[in-house]
Amino acid sequence: MTQVNRLSGGLIDRSATLNFSFDGKSYQGYAGDTLASALLANGVRLMGRSFKYHRPRGVLTAGSEEPNALVELRAGGRQEPNTRTTVAEIYDGLTANSQNRWPSLERDFMAINDRFSSFLSAGFYYKTFMWPKAFWEKLYEPIIRKAAGLGSLTGEADPDVYDKGFLHCDLLVIGAGPAGLAAALTAGRAGAQVIIADEDFRLGGRLLSDTGALSDQSGVDWVEQAQAELVSLPNVRVIPRTTVFGAYDHGVYGAVERNADHLIAPAAGKPRQTLWRIYSRRALVATGAIERPIAFENNDRPGVMLAGATRAYANRFATTPAQSVVIFANNDDAHQTARDLIAKGAEVPAVVDIRPNVPCIDGTEVLAGAQIVDTKGRLGLTSVTVRLANGQTRVIPCGALAMSGGWNPNLGLTCHQRGRPVWNEDIHAFVPGQGSQGHPIQGSVHDFPPRYMLVVGTSMSAGRDAIQEEIWPCRPLPQVVAATERAMFPPRLLHGAGLKADFTLSDEQRIRSCFQSIKLY
């Protein structure tokens, strides 16, 4: 079985071949793959349909923020709808099915909605189904309810058990990227009781996806060294596959650990998931940042992805979404995606950058001051249309588009205790306000892009500050140097699509029709 888009290298275990199925078709992947990376490696780009217009959807991200590629896993009482392929680990015998389509993913009857999208604007049913009045409960509402929703449950009882528990620590570190690991190391070495939690099944955050060096070693080597030291410390508890979902009074945090979601079934008597209530004297938020897409015509086709996600699939999972990838960006970070893809042997026909002055990249053409205005390809991207700096247009054939509109700090937890985010004009995004929750905030959640040496140094300082009231000794902080970067340009607003529910610029304008929210659909 050929994995047509599989690259060399990566952090997958090629000695452990895993068999799985998607929509009844058999595929193969490797240990360390997610369902998304394994499907991409096998040349599968179409993974779902949008909620409203049933437009074709593919993978957009490489993390838990994925809005498109939602599938049903398993069967019977263990069936789990709306699972993100980007976080679902594959295992031997995994069964996955697409959802929100009939009779098949490729030929979805409800895709006819897209042909009549001009008649199905936000809240259309409040204006359309007004008469006869008696038809609402007997005809209109049942039809709308049947058409709504994404996945479904079988109605069978779940055979698995779930547990809950309580944990206590001096310092809770939320996020195991370079910032979180550095802070946990500092506090752990000093003797503090530390818990470090991360939603991924592997620690390291963006260091797993980038090729940059940290001090005199690669980021991956530094992560492995840090993880080995943390695991060896008796006062440190490392809990991967754990999502911290809530911050409450008096240093209490809620978290869910997915103990056995990566297995075909939990071991006898073992829980599938555990709900933790964590009591911490201090907490450090190092939850990173998520990349912004760019709005343009038909920006939702399968094959249109985020640049950071494309780099993650190439470097961590050794796969590319297509053999030919165009880059579209307004910042320097996305240029590294082009370099990494070229180094891996993928074709990068062009790097389209909104900014007027950007450097050249060996192995590809850089189109400065240009912007992508449209794409082609119904069930998968086939080409992009570029408006050049001189106003002319150019069509570039490609199988994938990696876009980056900058990064937004992942500041959800910092707002749970009335923390108010503030606008940062330099990165065109909201960042946590000073003193959010009364806890230190480090890493990309505070400032992006990550300057790894600086992040590690400041996070070690934060780890030291978090335990400064104690008598535990701390090691000296490393000397670090900040990197420089050209400013990003915000893209001009074009008519684009919101990805999960087909929101468009016209839906935003429905506010003029007295709708308070475009989420009225």
Characterization of the model:
A six-stranded mixed beta sheet has the order 12-9-8-15-14-13. About 20% of the residues lie in helices and about 25% in strands. By secondary structure, the protein is of the alpha/beta class. The protein has ten helices and 27 strands.
Q: What integer is the average pLDDT? A: 85
Helices, by number, come to 10
Q: What is the topology, as strand order, of the major beta sheet?
A: 12-9-8-15-14-13
Helix content: 10-25%
Cα gyration radius (Å): 24 Å
Q: Kindly, what is the distance between the CA atoms of the first and last residues, rounded to a whole number of angstroms?
A: 42 Å
The beta-strand count equals 27
What does the secondary structure layout of this molecule look like, with pairings?
Elements: E1 13-22, E2 25-31, H1 35-41, E3 48-49, E4 56-57, E5 70-73, E6 80-84, E7 94-97, H2 112-115, H3 124-128, H4 135-147, E8 162-174, H5 178-189, E9 194-197, E10 213-214, E11 217-218, H6 219-232, E12 236-239, E13 242-248, E14 252-257, E15 273-285, E16 289-291, E17 304-306, H7 307-315, E18 325-329, H8 333-343, E19 350-353, E20 365-368, E21 371-376, E22 383-387, E23 393-397, E24 400-404, E25 407-409, E26 422-424, E27 429-431, H9 452-466, H10 505-508
Parallel strand pairs: 1-7, 8-9, 8-15, 9-12, 17-24, 18-19, 18-24, 19-20
Antiparallel strand pairs: 1-2, 3-4, 5-6, 5-7, 10-11, 13-14, 14-15, 16-25, 21-22, 22-23, 26-27
Helix pairs in contact: 5-6, 5-9, 7-8
